Amino acid sequence: MFHIISRPSLPSGTSMRSQNSGQPTSNLSARTPKRPRKRRANFPVEKLMEQFLEQSAQAEDNFYQVEERRLQAEDRRREMEHARELQMLQMLGQMFSSVSSAAAPSKASPPAARAPVNSSASSSPSCPRGQSGQVKHPSPRRDCFTQQSRLSTSAPQALVFDRYYSLGSTSHRGMDDDLLSLVKNTIPPLTSKKHKGQDGRIGIIGGCQDYTGAPYFAAISALKAGADLSHVFCTKEAAPVIKSYSPELIVHPVLDSPNAVEEIEKWLPRLHSLVVGPGLGREGLLLKTVKEVIEKSKTRDIPIVIDADGLWLVTQQPSVIQGYHKGILTPNIMEFTRLYQALNREPMDSSDHQHSLMQLSVAMGNLTVVLKGEQDVITDGSKVFTCSLEGSGRRCGGQGDLLSGSMGVFAHWAHSASAAGVIRSVNPSVVAAYGACSLTRQCNSQAFQRHGRSTTTSDMIQEIGSAFKKLFES
């Protein structure tokens, strides 16, 4: 017989948990999630960063002010030296005049026979030439003086000294260093306060069915040299091909449209410089459009670099760019020959390219002209500069497009620096041309060291960054 034993009942309100009331409650508290701490902004650090940026901007402004004062002092020093030299020459002229007066024959005696004068030596305003016809270059930092005789019927012959700059005197290493220093001063610093497009928005006018590589080379070179945005205005057929080369270019297929001038003109206020000619072709309708675009750009005072088929347009109609102080022409020897003959109506003297180049520049209204060759010769009609930086013997197609594209960027920088007073003694277009020529030659040299005979323009473009740093940032 089984007995059921009942469990004693607990008092009401008492639970089984009360039996374990003596156990610690630390486990419960450990499982309770902690409240996250409030993050407080570190205001002192932000203020320090703001002060640092302000001080950096102030230091940059101070640097440009000091550099401007240095250039002004240098200009004053050169003017004083020039004045002293002129004073010395006047004294020498007076001395020779008095000597010739004392040695003059009496009125009764017949006049002495005049010695023959070498016409080749007296007609040239540069340094004396030797028997070989080559210019004798003076030593660096020294001007070349020539003597000219002036006859007077009422007074004895007096010797007058005139001062001239030799065509070769600017090609020495000291002048190269001076120009390179000017180029460095025009390059804008990279700061976090700038916005996209501030360092250069470049427009390339060119690109047709037959030529799509040239506008790409010019546009991508402008970007690699430091421009922020690069626009290509080409024909409809060329646009898809150029777009496929790089997604970094802004391509406008409007060059052959009926309202091409209006389509391009609306972009001109946003552009800092224009490169005309790479891959343009010689179709009459395109050349007519480009001529009108150049006229519109001139009214906006935009720097214009003209190369390749753009030079063909200038050969046919020189007035399109004649006298424009922000224009730059970049012909090779064949293009230069056509331009010279079109302007001067006579054959060019192939033995003296520098003199012919100055004549062309003067005929074009002192336009800056760059003659590409073994040495790049640059002139604005008043002075001649030579960029003789070592390149290589490789002459693949497309190097001129690299030159013109990068020159568009340097032209924007140089004219902006000139407006700010950084450049005073040299034409900004000449400074821009020298910078682009130096960069192209350095890229050619570096690419040739890597690839030798197989060097192409694409290889040179890959060297733009390191070449730029070596030339202008070291």
Automatic annotation (TrEMBL):
ATP binds at residues 372-376, 391-400. One of its GO terms (molecular function) is ATP-dependent NAD(P)H-hydrate dehydratase activity. (6S)-NADPHX binds at residues 279, 332-338, 401. Residues 179-471 form the YjeF C-terminal domain. Residues 32-41 have a biased composition (Basic residues). Residues 102-128 have a biased composition (Low complexity). One of its GO terms (biological process) is metabolite repair. Its cofactor is Mg(2+). SUPFAM superfamilies: Ribokinase-like (SSF53613). Residues 1-41, 102-150 are annotated as: Disordered. HAMAP family: NADHX_dehydratase. Belongs to the NnrD/CARKD family. Catalyzes the dehydration of the S-form of NAD(P)HX at the expense of ATP, which is converted to ADP. Together with NAD(P)HX epimerase, which catalyzes the epimerization of the S- and R-forms, the enzyme allows the repair of both epimers of NAD(P)HX, a damaged form of NAD(P)H that is a result of enzymatic or heat-dependent hydration. This is ATP-dependent (S)-NAD(P)H-hydrate dehydratase. It comes from Labrus bergylta. The lineage of its organism: Eukaryota, Metazoa, Chordata, Craniata, Vertebrata.
